[in-house]
């Protein structure tokens, strides 16, 4: 079970909080949870802006990404599953183009994993699609 919280202070005075926390087994259908639980730890990323202006520079996003990558690389059985929506976009340019805009209009779901975990990630991805495709 993973729970990690850290803050990122950027050179331009920005402050971001990053929380990585494990999904519990009830987040997935029972058969998926049973298949993945002994082998991988699936975590969610929660990114919030604690202070600074409305935009985040490419440098800021690079700093945040590097911190998450370090954590991922230190844990061999970690799989990161994150999603974005338009409730709290973090624009990364003054043109007000959000990171979320590069995904699907409604939701953008991304899973970061090692190739050795691909069969487990396929189970997760299929369960996500089934959940969103229901009327």
What does this structure look like?
This protein has 135 residues and is an alpha+beta fold. Helix content is 29%, strand content 28%. It has a five-stranded mixed beta sheet with strand order 1-2-3-4-5, covered by helices on one side. It is elongated. The termini are far apart. The relative contact order is 0.17. The model is unreliable at 92-104 (pLDDT under 50).
Topology:
Layout (H helix, E strand, L loop, with lengths): L2 E7 L5 E8 L7 H7 L4 E11 L6 H16 L4 E7 L23 E5 L5 H16 L2
Parallel strand pairs: 3-4
Antiparallel strand pairs: 1-2, 2-3, 4-5
Strand order of the largest sheet: 1-2-3-4-5
The count of β-strands is 5
Number of helices: 3
Overall pLDDT score: 78
| First and last CA, distance | 32 Å
Largest sheet geometry: 5 strands, mixed
Radius of gyration: 16 Å
Please give the share of residues in helix: 25-40%
What class do helices, strands and sheet pairing give?
alpha+beta
Element pattern in H and E: EEHEHEEH
Low-pLDDT runs of 5+ residues are: 92-104
Shape, principal axes of CA atoms: elongated
Percentage of residues in strands: 25-35%
């Amino acid at each position: 079970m993973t729970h990690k919280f850290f803050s990122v202070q950027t050179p331009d005075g920005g402050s971001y909080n990053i929380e990585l926390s494990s999904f519990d087994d009830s987040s997935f259908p029972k058969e998926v949870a049973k298949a993945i639980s002994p082998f991988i730890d699936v975590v969610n990323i929660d990114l919030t802006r604690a202070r600074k202006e409305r935009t985040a520079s490419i440098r800021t996003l690079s700093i945040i990404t590097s911190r998450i990558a370090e954590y991922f690389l230190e844990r061999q059985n970690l799989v990161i599953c994150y999603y974005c929506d338009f409730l709290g976009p973090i624009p990364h340019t003054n043109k007000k183009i959000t990171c979320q805009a590069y995904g699907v209009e409604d939701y953008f779901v991304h899973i970061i994993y090692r190739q050795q975990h691909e069969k487990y990630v396929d189970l997760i991805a299929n369960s996500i699609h089934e959940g969103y495709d229901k009327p």
